[in-house]
Amino acid sequence: MKILVTGTAGFIGYHLVKNLLDRGDTVVGIDCINDYYDVKLKHARLEDTGIRVAGMEYGKPVYSHSYPNYTFIKLDILDKEQLELCFKTYQFDAVCNLAAQAGVRYSLTNPEVYIDSNIKGFLNILECCRHFKIKHLAYASSSSVYGLNKNMPFNEHNIADHPVSLYAASKKANEMMAHTYSHLFNVRTTGLRFFTVYGPWGRPDMALFIFTKNMLEGKPIEVFNNGNMLRDFTYVDDIVEGIVHVIDNPAEPNPNWDAQNPDPATSKAPFRIFNIGRGAPISLLGFVEEIESQMHITAKKILLPMQEGDVAETCADVSHLDDALNYKPKTSVHDGVAKFTAWYKEFYNVKYEDLAPVAIGVLTH
Fold it and tell me: pLDDT tier at 360 (50, 70, 90 boundaries)?
C-alpha cells in the first residue's frame, strides 16, 4: 500500500515507519519537527530511516537513502494548503495520523497548542481523507480519555466522557470528529487508545527516559502519588504491530449496532475504537524497581503527591482488539525495559567510567 504516516519524527511514528518499510509498503512521512522536546532526537530518528536533515526545506520532499520506498516532508498538519497538495500528489491508500501535541502535564500550562494541533490539525486530516477518498484512516487516541472512570479494566464499550486533562479531552474529541466523518461521508476510521507506550527512541518527557537519565547521572527521581499509581506499560513494538493490524483491516459498519443501546466502540457507520495495551498494569514503584534491576543502580526517590491531570490507575481490556483482529500485546515489562536501557546507553554513549559518583557508589556486580 501507499501509506501516509504523520508524526514520523516522533517516537511511535518512527517505529511504525520502519515496520511498514521493512514489509514493503510505500510510505510518505510528515512531521513539523516542533521543539516540544529535544529536536536532535527527532533528527536522529529521521537519520536512522535514511532521511538527511541537513538542508531540509519546509514542504520539500526528502528521499531516504536507506529505503527507496520512503519519502519524508517537513510539514505541519495545520497547513491545510500544503497538506492537501501532499494528498493530491501521492494518492494514498491509507493514512495513520500520529501527529499531535503530546503530554498530559504540558496541557495544563499550554492549552492552546492542543486545540491547534489535536483539533484543528486533525480536522484537516479528516477533510483530506474525505475529499481524496482515503480507504482507511487510523489515528492515535489515548487511554487518558477514560479519565475519572474506575471500572477496571478499561473497556471501549463503556462510556468515557469524563476526561481530567485537556490533552485527554482533545483525544476524545478526535474520536467524536472521526465518527461524524464516518457517518456523514463514509470515511473509514479507527481510533487507537494507546496505553503508556515505552521503549527505545522514547520521548524525553516520559517516565522511563527521565528515570533512566537521572539514575545514571546520580540525580534523584520524582515519583508521583508515592509510587502507588498503576500503569499499563505497553512496549512500542506491540503498539506498532497493533497499528499495522488495524491498517490492514479497515473499519466496517457494525450490522448489530443498536441506537437504543449504543456501543461507543462501534457504529452503524464504518467507525471503531480499540484499546492497545498489555492488560497487565504494574505500580510506578515496581516499574522503577525494574529499571534499578536492569541498570544495577538504586534510585534516590522523592515521593510526591498525585499531579493534576493524572489518574491513579490504567488497565486495558484488549478483548475487543483480540476478537476483531486476533492480536494482543505480549512483551513483558522486564524485556521492554531491558531493551530501552540498552538503547539509551548505546545512543548516549554511556560508559561505566562516565557515571556520576553517586550512581557508581550503588552499582552492584
Answer: very low
Question: Could you tell me which residues come within 8 angstroms of residue 197 by beta carbon, excluding any fewer than 6 positions away?
Answer: 11, 12, 234, 235, 236, 239
- Structure confidence at residue 363 (pLDDT): 40
From the centroid of its chain, how far is CA 151? 23
C-alpha–C-alpha distance, residues 117 and 93, integer Å: 23
Alpha helices, DSSP H, located in 91-137: 106-109, 111-114, 122-131
Q: 348 an active-site residue?
A: no
Task: At 22, list the grid cell.
Answer: 521493512
Q: Which of helix, strand or coil describes residue 179?
A: helix
Q: What is the pTM of this model?
A: 0.94
pLDDT score, position 365: 29
- Which position has the grid cell 537521572? 214
DSSP 3-state assignment of 284?
helix
pLDDT at 266 (0 to 100): 98
The residue ranges of DSSP E strands in the chain, in sequence order, are: 2-6, 26-31, 61-63, 70-74, 94-97, 136-142, 189-194, 197-198, 221-224, 230-231, 234-235, 271-276, 282-283, 301-304
**What CA–CA distance (Å, rounded) separates 241 from 239?**
6
Pairing of strands 94-97, 197-198: unpaired
DSSP class of residue 154? B
Selecting among 14, 70, 167, 235, the annotated active-site residue is 167
The C-alpha atoms of residue 320 and residue 187 are separated, in whole angstroms, by 21
pLDDT of residue 108: 83
**Grid cell at residue 110:** 499550554
Taking residue 58's Cβ as centre, other Cβ atoms within 10 Å add up to: 12
Task: Say which residue the cell 495520523 belongs to.
Answer: 97
The predicted pLDDT at position 109 comes to 87
Query: Whats the size of the chain, residue-wise?
Result: 365
3-state secondary structure 28-82: EEEECCCCCCCHHHHHHHHHHCCCCCCCCCCCCEEECCCCCCEEEEECCCCCHHH
Residues in CB range of 95: below 8 A, 6 or more apart: 3, 4, 5, 6, 125, 128, 129, 134, 136, 137, 138
